[in-house]
Amino acid sequence: MYGKLVSTEKIGAKSYNIDIKDFKNNIYQFACLINNKWYYSKVIIIN
């Protein structure tokens, strides 16, 4: 399974938990820590 990053936006929070799988739209959403800042990322899955 491969993923293509389609969007990333900054989150104004020190900690963040998100793990949403939308298989209907082939989208995987998660939070990632970049340079000590949380970002909300949306990845489109390419099977």
Spell out the key features of this protein.
47 residues, mainly beta, four-stranded antiparallel beta sheet, elongated
β-sheet strand percentage = over 45%
Strand order of the largest sheet: 1-4-3-2
| Strand elements, count | 4
Helix content: under 10%
> What class do helices, strands and sheet pairing give?
mainly beta
What is the CA–CA distance across the termini?
Answer: 5 Å
What radius of gyration results from the CA coordinates?
Answer: 11 Å
Q: Count up the helices.
A: 0
List the domain count as a whole number.
1
Mean pLDDT, to the nearest integer, reads 66
> Per the principal axes of the C-alpha atoms, what is the gross shape?
elongated
Report the uncertain regions.
none
How does the major sheet shape up? 4 strands, antiparallel
What order do the SSEs take from the amino end to the carboxyl end, as H and E? EEEE
Describe the secondary-structure layout:
Elements: E1 2-10, E2 19-22, E3 27-34, E4 37-46
Antiparallel strand pairs: 1-4, 2-3, 3-4
Question: What does this 3D model show about the protein?
Answer:
The chain has one domain. The termini are close together. The protein has no helices and four strands. With 47 residues, it is mainly β.
Give a quick precis of the structure:
This protein is mainly β.
